[in-house]
Design goal:
Radius of gyration: 32 Å
Shape: elongated
Largest sheet: 8 strands, mixed
Number of strands: 26
Structural class: alpha/beta
Bound molecules: zinc ion
Number of helices: 21
Length: 665
């Protein structure tokens, strides 16, 4: 950079700065200067050299402050600022499937996303972030709001196997993602992307199709991988592979992948990620808060992975403060390796800048102050009370000062793509008070929605699944018996036609609620017993059993109501934490079940041996019914069937197992 000719014109010169380039050689210039033309860095170097080589319309004296690349938030869900503080101190599945997704299905719209994004962008700018990687619904609105404000972002349109707020099916969201990418590709600030949410919320088809789309348009693919140990265990059980090899098999890594979390991966999986140049976003706060575990960050960096740092969504953090994330990333890595030399400050700051940009596959554009890259930078004041004094002996001091002492509030100026977004901590782009008023309005409506939902077990159940309420009525009679042989013998007689026979081991857990009108929720595991007595497949079902019996027929035949029947897709632990029952009762029984025709009516016959608690043998006959007239007829036939099966009427019970257990204990 010699100045033997007349100075080159540029738009802006930042002088009298401590310039931290965060380039691969970690050049530091003090006093340093930066020359900017349009959206591009024209020169970065010692002040005297830059000043003599460039002439600017505007010169800004940085008063010795730090000029460095803006921070890169490598994984977040910006519209979730509107859900911040909605549900906390819960496990990931209960938090996500029990609260976030039901609320999102109800409230998330383009307007919601726009408002949440605007609030997030203000928060990001204030904490020195110039570039972020997002994943949400209606990503079009995220991109629009972000571009208007002027931040740089990778915006990934979510695709998952459940109906989403912006799509009824995955085919629909895939088509929307295609259009979204076509519209935004080539934008100066927004890099469009596609986000198969996570392997456990997608299918093989979704993973393959989203990867193919990302390859077709040469855009990054943003996803969550190996966030919890449970996810890895389930992947092994379901696919016979842990998460990274499984998604590799689905050809995910043919795309330019940005993978959030990667908490539970081993050495060989790191190598797979590295070989495919996949970026990783480490989310220390989110992993700590959801107790997901500790990502092997130091090892990933040694393997050569591009590991950035992200805040994750503000509903699981609960903020977007990258200074806090840097400190945590560094401290956690030291603690879990028992080695305070791990993740030194300079490495951590690199993760939050250049490596983060590389993880997002935007390393050619941003992440360091290098000639030709975009002018994405911040000015940091390190002369505050909590950052003083400053030592010069060790060149690493400056990085430690930033990572271990600086706070988001020390960011004075923010520039993205050559444009100031914040000067002297003032942002004039949006009316912050008005945005917060609107956010509070949403909070109020969401509060009301959840208060209403939490009132009823049924509505909580419906919120979990997309299936609707299903009412079914059953005529049922139950008899305690001493000898099952009579029943087995009667079943051989010609008056009965056996349509099907099954044998299960049944594990029932009943959730009891303080308010008896809520009914009782039964979680049932049916373990099929094969003809050769081997344990077969297991079926999990959830039934909400109505509180009151509809009717008694003579002979103690009941008409009872089950209000909701659904496959149980989650663990018993999940339902326990989600429904918070006041008590629980477990019953284990061995059940022989026949579907039969008797006097032209279809019945189920259950011959049960109740093992836990040990209650002995029971005979049950049941038939589904739709009308009172039909119920009366079936009750009559049920009485005959019970007698036909050899049970005497003085042993009749009108109680269900739950009542029996409650009486005996
Ligand atoms: Zn996330």
């Amino acid at each position: 950079m010699t100045a033997n000719t007349s100075p080159t014109p540029c738009d802006l010169l930042l002088v009298n700065a401590l310039v931290l380039t965060m380039d691969e050689e970690y050049h530091v210039y003090e006093p340093g200067a930066v020359a900017i033309r349009g959206d591009t860095l024209l020169a970065v170097g010692p002040e005297a050299e830059v000043r003599s080589a460039y002439h600017a319309a505007e010169v800004v004296d940085c008063q010795g402050r730090v000029v460095m690349p803006g921070l890169v938030n490598a994984h977040t869900h910006v519209p979730m600022t509107l859900l911040r503080g909605l549900a906390d101190d819960l496990r990931l599945d209960v938090w996500l499937l029990g609260y976030m997704m039901p609320v999102e299905r109800q409230f998330v719209s383009p307007e919601f996303v726009r408002l949440g994004t605007q609030i997030a962008c203000l928060e990001l700018i204030r904490s020195g972030v110039t570039c972020f990687a997002d994943m949400y619904y209606f990503e079009e609105s995220v991109a629009q709001a972000t571009a208007e404000i002027g931040l740089r972002a990778l915006c990934a349109q979510t695709v998952l196997k459940f109906p989403a707020p912006d799509a009824e099916s995955y085919e629909e969201s895939l088509a929307a993602a295609r259009e979204f990418i076509q519209r935004w590709k080539g934008h100066p600030l927004i890099v469009p992307s596609i986000a198969p949410h996570a392997p456990y919320t997608c299918t093989d088809d979704i993973l393959r199709a989203t990867a193919a789309l990302a390859v077709e348009f040469d855009v990054p693919l943003h996803t969550h991988l190996a966030e919890t140990a449970t996810e890895v265990d389930n992947s092994r059980a379901e696919h016979g592979l842990s998460v990274i090899p499984y998604v590799q098999q689905q050809r995910l890594f043919e795309a330019k992948v940005l993978a959030a979390h990667c908490v539970h991966i081993d050495e060989s999986e790191m190598v797979i990620l590295q070989r495919h140049k996949a970026g990783v976003a480490h989310n220390p706060s989110s992993n700590l808060k959801l107790a997901s575990g500790f990502a092997p960050v130091a090892r990933m960096l040694e393997v050569g992975l591009h590991v950035g740092i992200g805040t994750d969504g503000p509903a699981s953090n609960n903020d977007l403060d990258m200074f806090e994330e840097m400190r945590l990333a560094s401290f956690i890595a030291k603690s879990v390796t028992n080695d305070p030399t791990q993740l030194p400050a300079r490495t951590t700051l690199t993760m939050a800048t250049r490596l983060g940009a590389c993880a997002m596959h935007l390393g050619h554009l941003t992440g360091s102050l290098e000639v030709g890259k975009r002018a994405d930078l911040i000015v940091l004041d390190l002369s505050t009370l909590h950052t003083s004094p400053r030592f010069h002996r060790d060149p690493q001091n400056i990085y430690a000062q930033i990572v271990y002492t600086a706070k988001a509030s020390d960011v004075q100026e923010v520039m993205v793509n050559g444009k100031w977004l914040m000067r002297n901590r003032r942002i004039d782009l949006l009316d912050e008070r008005e945005l917060l008023r609107q956010a509070q309005e949403y909070a109020h409506r969401i509060d009301l929605f959840l208060i209403q939902r939490e009132k009823s077990v049924l509505s909580k159940l419906i919120a979990l699944s997309t299936a609707t309420e299903e009412e079914s009525f059953e005529v049922q009679a139950k008899v305690r018996i001493s000898d099952p042989e009579n029943v087995l013998a009667a079943l051989q007689r010609p008056e009965i036609e056996i349509l099907r026979q099954r044998h299960y081991h049944q594990f029932d857990t009943y959730f009891i609620f303080e308010d008896p009108t809520q009914g009782v929720l039964r979680y049932r595991e049916d373990e099929f017993v094969e003809a050769d007595q081997r344990a077969g497949p297991v079926r999990y079902r959830l039934t909400l059993i109505g509180p009151a019996r509809e009717h008694h027929f003579p002979g103690d035949v009941l008409l009872s109501r089950s209000r909701y029947l659904a496959p149980a897709n989650h663990s018993l632990r999940f339902y326990r934490e989600y429904f918070k029952p006041s008590a629980e009762i477990s019953i284990v029984k061995d059940r022989l079940r026949w579907r039969v025709l008797f006097h032209g009516t279809e019945f189920f016959i259950n011959l049960d041996r109740v093992e836990e608690p040990n209650l002995g043998y029971f005979l049950e006959v049941k038939s589904r019914t739709w009308s009172r007239r039909d119920a009366e007829h079936k009750a009559h036939v049920a009485t005959q069937l019970i007698e036909f099966l050899g049970a005497s009427s003085d042993e009749w019970l009108n109680k269900d197992y739950l009542e029996l257990v409650q009486q005996t204990t």
